[in-house]
Amino acid sequence: MGRFVVRRIAQGLLVVIGVTIMVFIFTRMVGDPAKTMLPLSASPEERAAFRHELGLDRPITEQFADYIGDLASGDFGTSLWQRRPAIDAVLHALPNTFQLVLLAIAIAVLLGVPLGVLAALRPGGALDRTAVVLSLAGLSIPQFWLGLLLIIAFSVTLNMLPTAGMGTPAHLVLPTLTLAFPALGRIAMIVRSSMIDELNQQYVKTAKAKGMPRARVVGFHALRNASIPALTLTGWELIRALAGYSVVVETVFAWPGVGFLADQALNNQDLILLQAIVFVVAVMVVVINVVIDVLYRAVDPRIKLV
Amino acid sequence: MATVKGREPDLGRRRRRETEHAAQHQMFLRGRPYEVIRAVRGALGELWSDKAGLFGVGVLVLLVLTAVFAPLLAPHDPAAQSLQNRLRPPFWSAEGGWDYPLGADGLGRDVLSRMIYGSRVSLIVGASVVLIAGTFGILMGLIAGYRGGRTDSIIMRVVDTQVAFPGLLLVLIILAAIGPSMTTIIVVLAINGWMVYARITRGVVLSVKEMPYVEAAEIVGCPSRRVVLRHILPNLASPLLTLAVLEFARIILAEAALSFLGVGIQPPQVSWGLMVAQGRDYLFNGWWIITWPGLAIAFTVLGVNLFASWLRVAADPQEREKRFARSATEMRQGSVT
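The joint structure predicted for all components is written out below.
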């Protein structure tokens, strides 16, 4: 168990390093920070000074060594737009993103799993069709558009909920729903299909034959086995919400999390802040991956950790 | 009830008999042209019976036609502004009219014309990314699966590392560094999407590599390029085709999101995602500006997804056989009861 965790963390470190290298290649070698980060009106002298300040006039290998060294010692540079260490800005926004993402995924699981189970009990029934339609809608509707439609419906027309920002629980409703919607459909579908498989297994027949109550057969025995693919998907949804969807949803609702910060950094051409965001999120992604791998073992002892 | 399959123990044999029977029936005319005609007719017939798949194909055909004939279809120049038509509502409301069927945006540009031109971006970006990422990914997967050993582990390590970090963030920073344009979006999304093809290709190659017919080809002295391209690659047609279609839908959504965030397609070019972004300032007095392009994205993606799920069954001989057998048993059971 301990060795497994160590190994997984080592693999995760590789992911973080890979991401860092990719960011370096694209920001320093393919793109030119002096061009992207300075306004168009900057004079050649100002650009040269800027390059010198960031060390962009030195050989690329030296820059790379410095870059890795700085990251390793936790120095992410100073955000030009926020005028403070980039990492501070990210860590300040991180709890807000966690709040949003965790709530959204919790809603998706709490609604998606029962929906999937009920759909599996009666394939072709009304609930099954609802689940299929929901998942197809979640698959096709762009999240930024869904968010705006919800704003038009609940904030503009009905005047029930705030359009943007955070503070009261009411501010959480629309962003969470928007973020949860596609995940809910996907979770319901995967629970449905694995439940259908499990319900046809011999052990379910045995349990029924010996007179076990139906609720216990379905809810305990079958669901436990069906929850493994659902667990994989939930982890994946968590990662994708953190590393992608949150940018769009937080931007739509001006939710002051990491995604919104990334959008603002983008608008202010603040590459240093963006780098810090990508690095922190990469670390989060790795941590979630390790936690999920360990959880597998708790759910299904048959899985060997190697 | 929860019983779905395996009602009768000897169903397998009966199904097989029925499929063989059906296969014999179709074999009266031989020769390439007849085979092609029969295949096309068979596919069309199957499509007709699968209404969801039919809808998907309809959407795709509509998308391609709209994109190709955009200049003929669009009633206005997509960039033409007109101050007196600012925020004109769609045709059914009192202030609306047929000259601006779906309304006009905040600058008085025709929403319908912009949507028609926007379809071009979705199609071009989607198709190019699938083509580039697909070609590269398949190549990498073939090399990794066929060569094995060191090459395999290096390629798959790269794939795993990239797959482990999904989402838009990495794409965002790359686009911010290079500067957004249609070409950069295509390149960046392709860099971000080749891994899935490599994974699937490698999996199929590994399972096919040990087959007797591949070994036979190697023993009679086929060069490895021929073994890979002639004997292994055809096995990949069905899974890869479905994957490519699904990826096409994903890319359309990704392009829309990037354009919405302002790092995708730049004005004066038109894209559905960009249209939604431009309509954000008019949520209070112009709901139609964001509604139509959003619907266009949603229906396109839905159609492509439904097409993919039809294709998954139609392009895979084993799946087809299963489905044929199922419908045959259902028909028989229906006639008995």
